Amino acid sequence: MSDLDPRVFPPAKTRTHEVCGPGAYTFAFALAARLGGHCMWVRGGWDSTEINPNGFADFIAPEDLTVCRTKDQLQTLAVAEEALRAGAVSLVVMRLNKPLGLTEGRRLQLAARDGRATGLALIPEGMGSNAAETRWRCTPVFDPGDSTLQRWEIIKNKSGTLGVWHVRWDAASRRFIMVSPAGE
User: Fold this and answer.
1) 91-95 and 39-44 as β-strands: parallel, antiparallel, unpaired?
2) Distance CA 44, CA 52 (A)
3) pLDDT tens-place string over residues 29-47
4) Three-state DSSP class for 104?
5) Confidence grade of residue 183 (pLDDT, cut at 50, 70, 90)
């Protein structure tokens, strides 16, 4: 086992990235843990998923997470853009349910750069913006001995190669460790 390659994770700071798949929340909280500082989670009124900060205490302290509920995706994007630009948080996570246009995606990239923050859009499978720096697909891997095993795949990368990693969360060190897939 070794640390996940720092050229891959965490993704580039001051940029906006995307993640899809059933392991997307784990990816988001692992990124929050790796970046440190305060995280803002923005979700629209369409999203019935409730975030309990205590449920992710192995990743970040509950007081380091602000959950913001907006009316719709337009308001979600506006709040995320302002939070990124303000520079008061290290990570802004936004749940999106509609495709993101190039203009909106570019505005998020500029806001992340200006505020020196990282943006992460949680998107449905098959959706994505051309403006995203990277797009990840994250899925849990069945392992009866460890419920933290994940398969992370970069499916879009503007500044590097694509790849697949099997990772395991280590709560004590608050980091993901790269592991070999079974049989390798």
Assistant:
1) parallel
2) 16
3) 999 998 999 999 999 888 8
4) helix
5) very low
pLDDT score at 8: 67
Report the C-alpha dihedral over residues 159, 163, 167, 171, rounded to 10 degrees.
Answer: 10
C-alpha distances in Å from residue 62, one per residue of 32, 36, 66: 12, 12, 9
Residue 19: name the closest of 132, 163, 104 by CA: 132
Positive or negative torsion for Cα 118, 113, 89, 101: negative
Burial letters 91-115, b for 16+ CB under 10 A, else e: bbbbbbeeebeeebbebbbebbeeb
Q: Is the pLDDT of residue 181 over 70?
A: no
Pull the structure tokens for residue 174: 């608050």
CA dist., res. 94 & res. 79, Å (int): 9
| Calpha distance 109→81 (Å, rounded) | 9
Q: Does residue 10 have a cis peptide bond before it, meaning omega lies within 30 degrees of 0?
A: yes
Q: What is the pLDDT of residue 119?
A: 97
Rounded to 10 degrees, what is the CA torsion of 95, 123, 136, 69?
0
